[in-house]
Amino acid sequence: MEELFAHSLLVVTGKGGVGKSTVAAALGLAASRRGLRTIVVEVTAREDVSRALAREQTSVYTELAVSERLHHISIDPQRAMEEYLSEQLPVGVLAARFSRNRIFTGLTAATPGLRELLTIGKVWELAQHERRTRGAETYDLVVLDAPATGQALAMLQAPRTFASVARVGPVAKQGRAVASFLGDPQRTAVLAVSTAEEMPVGETLELRSRLREDLGMDLSLVVVNAVLAHRFSDRDQRTLRTAPPSPAQHAALFMASWAHRQRMQIARLQQGLQAVALVTLPFMFQSALDREALELLSRELAP
Amino acid sequence: MSVAERMAGKRICICTGSGGVGKTTTAAAVALGLAARGQRVAVVTIDPARRLASSLGLQQLENEPRLIEPAHFAGQGIELHGELWAMTLDAKRTFDELIDLLAPNTATREEILANKIYQELSSAVAGSQEFTAVAKLYELNASGRFDAIVLDTPPSRSALDFLDAPQRLTGFLEGRALKVLTAPTGAAAAIAARGSGLVFSALRRVTGVDLLTDLSAFFRVLSDVADGFAERASAVNRLLGDPATTFLIVASPEPTPVEEAIFFRQRLREAQMPFGGLVINRVRMLAHTAPTADQSALAADFGGDADLAARSIEALRDMRALARRDAASTRRLAAELDDEHPILVPQLDRDVSDVAGLVAVQRFLFARPRERSALLAERAF
């Protein structure tokens, strides 16, 4: 776990709905507790991480402080691209007959990967020791709450694709620098978050295959969220099954069976992952995750 | 109200909701229930669980529905009086088939299919899966082969993409936009040409990629199909608003699916599309009266194992905490979505990604009120 915090960028990815943003936030908290100046980057139009960190405001492209050493920023890929292109394209063209929207839609389709490249480019910039903007905060660690699996892979792939297709120009140059940074296992680590259920486990295994085959990278860690404690042994379950029905007996059997299914999925995951480290986070029974619960989780994750 | 009643007089059921809520299972279960009740139904799935897919024979080569043999459901306590057909959507193939249909000749068709930008657009771009799902729906509906069609929707990051995407895609491909962005002919067009020339040279300078060749080739060939495409897209959009179409919103009691369901209900209202009802999956039901748990009596039940009794009581406490949370989510959803009687499907004590699981879910979806109350009460904590 400590090794993980020695990186510059942690890419946290996983299927939608597994608590990826919660884990990203928990990692951010754990890092800041260790004295690392950390920023959690959320790439999405929705504010999942903001909610997890119990922020009221939403930050769009502004680096906001959650606590002394923990910052947060939201990046909307579409906006990132539009802003970049607005700066680059001649003003007259945009004022011309066709709508700005159509150009951008056209350009997105025509230059697949550009949006992803600009997004990961912004993330890369945050992780540099020398920031582009004078006086901007520098960070020891960037935790990226990456969009769901497919998009995350596209983001990791984009710099490499651009570097091969485009020889000159500012984008290609940045593409090469970013590709090299992402491909350096000392600087960038990729984590997957999953729950102990069939689909998320399948997707995690597939993510790993694609990382290895398409990008020559690997997962550094898998975090399995919402795992039930192994409360009832096989013997307990036999006793429960033969006991007279009662609410407690019903609840116990239900949980035992549920926990068992989870363990089978974790075993399936472990078998597929082989050497990749796996940690589990406990199921939280209380109401929606608040800041306190998040602190708890972050200590579970990285004591 | 059960699904049967919500589907009365409807031919098309579109299951929407955020990813991970059991949409595909719900869509398949709805289709199964309708087929059991005598209809010839097709279900179009997007992202089925491996096990469900193989148990229904969905790993197939054609981009067409396949009849599920009634034998698959033998011994599951359900009898199919109609027919269940199922398929998994292949977005790229559907798109290619559409081009096949619209291209004026073989040469154009080949050129489009080989174009790099088309390939990118048809397989990876957001909007492609959503559009092709509805395009396939249109095709199946127009064929007249089925009494009912149930559509699963893509596991988009946001369920809202479903309504937006066809418009975005058609907006881009619309004839007029293409003419403006390519090198058009005519006097007025010369001005536009200068504008687009500026765009391309700027892009080349910035991205280092010479898009002009690929892009103009793409637009040139696609302009042949653009009008047909736009027409198809309009027809598809009309189908969504048809009185025989209904949208089911599928959610689970977790925070994100709840928020998505609320947003999506709002979008349906704005787009004036028919909301057929809310299905909430994986609910932990709260028993009406708080159960008593006497530790010593329980220990006696367990042959004197007081420790097991204590742990079981903890389990009951935990499940009730979950059930209370779920009850709050359910109330919120019912209020915000304006559906007083959402269809609740409890978290089952088994895997749902096989045929038996599907039959079980179907039972909850189609149960009449009294049967449903009894089924839910059995599983309450």
Short description:
The complex is a heterodimer of chains A (303) and B (381). Chain A has 303 residues and is of the alpha/beta class.
Description:
The complex is a heterodimer of chains A (303) and B (381). Chain A has helices spanning 2-5, 20-33, 48-52, 77-88, 91-95, 100-110, 114-127, 149-165, 170-182, 198-215, 234-242, 247-273, 291-301; strands spanning 9-13, 38-43, 64-67, 70-75, 141-145, 188-195, 219-227, 277-282. Chain A is α/β, with parallel strands linked by helices. Chain A has one domain (2-231, 277-301): P-loop containing nucleotide triphosphate hydrolases (Rossmann fold, 3-Layer(aba) Sandwich). The radius of gyration of chain A is 22 Å and the shape is elongated. Chain A starts with a helix and ends with a helix. Chain B has helices spanning 3-6, 23-36, 50-55, 91-102, 106-114, 116-123, 128-143, 161-173, 175-181, 187-207, 211-240, 255-270, 295-301, 306-337, 355-366, 369-378, and strands at residues 12-16, 40-45, 66-67, 83-88, 148-152, 245-251, 275-283, 343-346. Mean pLDDT of chain B is 80; it is low at 175-195. An eight-stranded mixed β-sheet of chain B has the order 3-4-2-5-1-6-7-8, sandwiched between helices. Chain B has one domain: 3-Layer(aba) Sandwich (Rossmann fold), CATH 3.40.50. Chain B is α/β, with parallel strands linked by helices and 381 residues long. The chains are: A alpha/beta (303), B alpha/beta (381). At the A-B interface, helix 6, helix 8, helix 9, helix 10 and helix 11 of A face helix 6, helix 8, helix 9, helix 10 and helix 11 of B.
Produce the secondary structure layout.
The complex is a heterodimer of chains A (303) and B (381).
Chain A: H1 2-5, E1 9-13, H2 20-33, E2 38-43, H3 48-52, E3 64-67, E4 70-75, H4 77-88, H5 91-95, H6 100-110, H7 114-127, E5 141-145, H8 149-165, H9 170-182, E6 188-195, H10 198-215, E7 219-227, H11 234-242, H12 247-273, E8 277-282, H13 291-301
Parallel strand pairs in A: 1-5, 1-6, 2-4, 2-5, 6-7, 7-8
Antiparallel strand pairs in A: 3-4
Chain B: H1 3-6, E1 12-16, H2 23-36, E2 40-45, H3 50-55, E3 66-67, E4 83-88, H4 91-102, H5 106-114, H6 116-123, H7 128-143, E5 148-152, H8 161-173, H9 175-181, H10 187-207, H11 211-240, E6 245-251, H12 255-270, E7 275-283, H13 295-301, H14 306-337, E8 343-346, H15 355-366, H16 369-378
Parallel strand pairs in B: 1-5, 1-6, 2-4, 2-5, 6-7, 7-8
Antiparallel strand pairs in B: 3-4
Helix pairs in contact in B: 2-15, 4-7, 5-11, 7-11, 8-11, 9-11, 12-14, 13-14
